[in-house]
Amino acid sequence: MTPVDPAHNDASMVQLLTPEGERVAHPDYAFTATTADGGVADEGEVIRGYYRDMVLTRRIDTESTALQRHGELGIWTQLLGQEAAQIGCGRALRPQDYVFPTYREHGVAYCRGLDPLRILGLFRGVDQGAWDPAAHNFANYTIVIGAQTLHATGYAMGVQRDGLVGTGDRDRDTSVVAFFGDGASSQGDVNEAFIFAASYNAPVVFFCQNNQWAISEPIERQSRIPLYQRARGFGFPGVRVDGNDVLAVHAVTTAALQYARDGNGPVFVEAYTYRMGAHTTTDDPTRYRMSEELEYWKLKDPIARVKVYLTRQGLADREYFEAVEREADELGARLRDGCRALPDPEPLSIFDQVYAEQTAELAEQRDTFAAYLASFEGVR
Amino acid sequence: MTPVDPAHNDASMVQLLTPEGERVAHPDYAFTATTADGGVADEGEVIRGYYRDMVLTRRIDTESTALQRHGELGIWTQLLGQEAAQIGCGRALRPQDYVFPTYREHGVAYCRGLDPLRILGLFRGVDQGAWDPAAHNFANYTIVIGAQTLHATGYAMGVQRDGLVGTGDRDRDTSVVAFFGDGASSQGDVNEAFIFAASYNAPVVFFCQNNQWAISEPIERQSRIPLYQRARGFGFPGVRVDGNDVLAVHAVTTAALQYARDGNGPVFVEAYTYRMGAHTTTDDPTRYRMSEELEYWKLKDPIARVKVYLTRQGLADREYFEAVEREADELGARLRDGCRALPDPEPLSIFDQVYAEQTAELAEQRDTFAAYLASFEGVR
Amino acid sequence: MTKMTLAKALNAGLRKAMENDPKVLVMGEDVGKLGGVFRITDGLQKDFGEDRVIDSPLAESGIVGTAVGLAMRGYRPVCEIQFDGFVYPAYDQIVSQVAKLHFRTHGAVRMPMVIRIPYGGGIGAVEHHSESPEAQFAHTPGLKVVTCSNPVDGYWMIQQAIAADDPVIFLEPKRQYHADKAEVDEAAVPAPLFASRVVRLGAEVTLIGYGPTVKTCLKVAEAAAGEGRSVEVVDLRTLSPLDLGPVYDSVRRTGRAVVVHEAHTNLGMGAEIAARITEQCFYSLEAPVLRVGGFDTPYPPSRLEEEFLPDLDRVLDAVDRSFVF
Amino acid sequence: MTKMTLAKALNAGLRKAMENDPKVLVMGEDVGKLGGVFRITDGLQKDFGEDRVIDSPLAESGIVGTAVGLAMRGYRPVCEIQFDGFVYPAYDQIVSQVAKLHFRTHGAVRMPMVIRIPYGGGIGAVEHHSESPEAQFAHTPGLKVVTCSNPVDGYWMIQQAIAADDPVIFLEPKRQYHADKAEVDEAAVPAPLFASRVVRLGAEVTLIGYGPTVKTCLKVAEAAAGEGRSVEVVDLRTLSPLDLGPVYDSVRRTGRAVVVHEAHTNLGMGAEIAARITEQCFYSLEAPVLRVGGFDTPYPPSRLEEEFLPDLDRVLDAVDRSFVF
Ligand SMILES: Cc1ncc(C[n+]2csc(CCOP(=O)(O)OP(=O)(O)O)c2C)c(N)n1
Ligand SMILES: Cc1ncc(C[n+]2csc(CCOP(=O)(O)OP(=O)(O)O)c2C)c(N)n1
Ligand SMILES: [Mg+2]
Ligand SMILES: [Mg+2]
Question: Nearest-CA neighbor of A92 among A10, A216, A177, A22?
């Protein structure tokens, strides 16, 4: 028996843009800027777009955190530090692709065109994230850790049955992305998803944002080897990418999605990143992690490196950055007002949303409660 | 993304005794005959012992199958073909080691000294396999697929807390064996067991008898790569051994158990074998598998190759083999009579076995039922 | 018109559903070549192919969890759980996802999924093969739970469950699979899925059963009739929603009721039914609603299952007791 | 004598249990450095070490499944499930292994395990964080289920549950964790674990609650007293086994009973309690036992939870209704 080396940081991580803002080459992956229809796009324009995406995403996050502090939200799941992982992946998706998020994919939701206010509704408690997933091919947030990875795999099995893998038609071949965290990798459901996806060769990309922490538990508690290597045990490829490098994440995810669309089966992508904020606004990370760690990761900020790159390359100037800031301010204002304006749900509505076909027994319970509420009319 | 080669039969399988009865060498593993206290034992005597163990185990199985056919058992889980995997592993165990079986480990039970009649009791339906696991460090049969692998891992965590790994004391250092099948490898529980065992470096050997089938489903449905490679994804060693070669199984398991006892953590052993019989006596394999396959595996019979070896080497003669047959006949007779003599349980007993501390409400239910039964005295 | 066992009727009903709607899929362990350990899916893979009759890896959470995704993609998965005791690994997916997605999404996501579970005891099996999990699912809003007691219902109810747009836990009394044959008229107009049925008229006491215990109740009624006692029998058919209208009508006439099921008595369906009958028929009751169920012990080794299960004598005893009040 | 919140009392009780018995282990997600998301295990890892206070990988089935093995090795694991809605991945291990091992082995294997679950609503949380799963566990023979409603019970009951040789599902009303403080006398002799308690004497109607609803019931009694109506209140404390002796005595005096819980009404504890009261006190009942529970819908978004949960008004309304019979 030869023990397996438990090294967690291994060399194989794909990086194309260093924290210092230098472009670097990688033997297997290169960033290519493409237009929606697959044509060649202006690289500067595309990277400026990612910068803007990440700034706006961060603003959605900081604004929502503030709203929670002001009592407008019950809780908020911060993505601070994970902007590149989510935008790099979100921008690699095609319209027909389908996403199964956790509860932290605000940046991906933004890429899919979902109004952030729909997400705020969930955390405000006016609903449970009731958006129509088919409207943006973006499933509803899933809170039970790992459950959505099986849903994604099943959805991908449906795509196979619809004959939409490996046809070569770039507008029809479809891949599915299952998001999950480092902690989630320990759930039985996630490993069963690997098994089903491998067994049926389903077109699903398992996109793991390894942000180093599962609430208070470090990644070492979940796995003694780099997470992307988990895929080796199930017979499909895994790759680790610098999750704070939007270009690398985009390049690797693009390849992974195409690999799945072409009918080659599942892929595991580990976006190596860091949860800069608390687990949620109710969490207190000072109880379990060192501020040094935070300082170390600050130097790897996903947005700063792109800004440095754009500036150095003369691809963007002060005006541009200020314009993006203004846009972010406007977005922030819209979220503040929009959140406060979210209407409270109708008490009786809960009885109407349980079944597609209402039952007599529940309708009766509804009526009884309606009469009960009515009895307070004027009284209260 | 480079696809993973889905080859199922790979070269790396450890074999020390060929189906033709030839001893062959392996770079990493060699069979060594040792006495209980670790001294050198007479190899011929030890291998004769394995032969006898396998013949008696097979007899337990064929006899029980016959008993089921005669209506004495409700069902029987046949191990035909898996004798070497179970004896090779069972004989590598030390007294302090602890075993968590599935529902098919009759050969391992035999090695642990559990009276086969206790097992027949379960399949006859007079109890549910109620033996005291501490009596032979052999846990109760577990029917829910995979559940026992977590129990084994937890037990191994207990061993760690008792300070009984890596002390160097051969009579105290303890390892735990979790048995499971190829189909079970798809259960969330089994993969969670891998995760917990790796995370805590628990002294557990995951012993998978890959008998190629999970009822009607071939191994390919569960995994597209050799099962022992599953361990790679979790960061601990895995090895495939010829499960029909008792010497190889013994050598590999001995190494695996020691690796765990020494405090190196979990190991995955895949015993590559074949389910020669039906899944259970109620199953009809002709519905889903080819007789050619059966013929192919007949040539790899675990007992025949040892007999050939012993004969060719002059290590055993006709008298010996006949003596073993007689012993098997006696065992068979004992099982037949013993099984029929197993007493039916007392109806009221079920109320007494639910809790360590009986509850008033269940005691009352018992009394009511007792009175009800009494009301029939004489009537029936 | 063909005479069928419940097993054959379910098989025929599944086949019909698959013929009628190409989106219907069957998935589970050994449902393909083997046709399931009870042969309920016999021949379906041969005729509808491996894409529609899917042998799954050995993982129940995986079966139900992937079925959720297939349903979101527009399919109508029919999952087979091999035995009642093996539904629990899928419990989380069932109660937290299958049951809640419609509610969570205000109906944007529908779960037209059927989870077939052979349930109940009496077949001499080992542990985990004779459980009655219905109460746990009926306690879970968002699920619908039905159970068939005879071949005719089996043939129609499985088709109606598959056609329903809500998730249905479909409980099949495995002991009845091959028990009796009945004429199934494929041309008939079936009774609605979520409706109970009075299967024997009577005047003095109302016996309420479902699935495997309906037969027992009818035997009891027969025996009681011999003793000159008139027993009405109701087959619930649907456990969630409950359709107790016919039960209330009956109890208002009889003044007495006994609920019979194999599940543990404590917090079994009988508890809910007794509570509701008492609320609705308080002034009609001559005696408290009595319950005859499995005992509050784990299901016993098979040699004791006849004692554990409600049988003719234990139900008759309860009927008698309901008259001493 | 020290004033403690329920959270602090549970923490103190756990500490006491770990001091008294070196075999007691605490395991779960984030129970170590963080002290659990509710801080119930605060400081325990610091004082008892990582071998006894174990942060587990993120897998509930793994937590409970490994706890089974630890129990077989002679330990007394106390598992923390982070929130009620996350116990379901462990459901199979709980109902098919933890609950059945003693029975399966005729007592050769004991399961002295405690599974702590913060449960119930009212904290403005998102989905899956406000469930009330008690009925499902109480329906499972082999498990014992208890719940504390105040700091004093919290302090003693957790120690008694850990000392018990049977598996105990220990339900903690998370809404009460920091609600009120109470004097806890570490020197007192605690009431037995499996006993209910009359917490307010009354003459006209019996209110039955447990965990989070006891406080509501007491408020109701207070309000009713204002209207000149005398209400008796019982805190069940133990849900399996049920200790209904005091309830029967009470109902025989009052003739009326109302059961209050947050769990869905259909097949909730109220159903079983109503059925048993009716059987035992048939001739004393002036009205059917009424139930006030969560509605038979999934737990709603937090903005609607006050409507969903039984509150003063809804319980008062039920009390009034019980008088119109
Ligand atoms: C089944 C289940 N158990 C526990 C929880 C509570 N919980 C919410 S998030 C979380 C940690 C998840 O960590 P990770 O998977 O790394 O994702 P991250 O939050 O870091 O993005 C836990 C334990 C849950 N939501 N679901
Ligand atoms: C959770 C669960 N699901 C389904 C079953 C029914 N079942 C019993 S054995 C078996 C196949 C197991 O195959 P494998 O793990 O390869 O072990 P083998 O029987 O081949 O030894 C199945 C599906 C079960 N016992 N438990
Ligand atoms: Mg994380
Ligand atoms: Mg097998």
Answer: A177
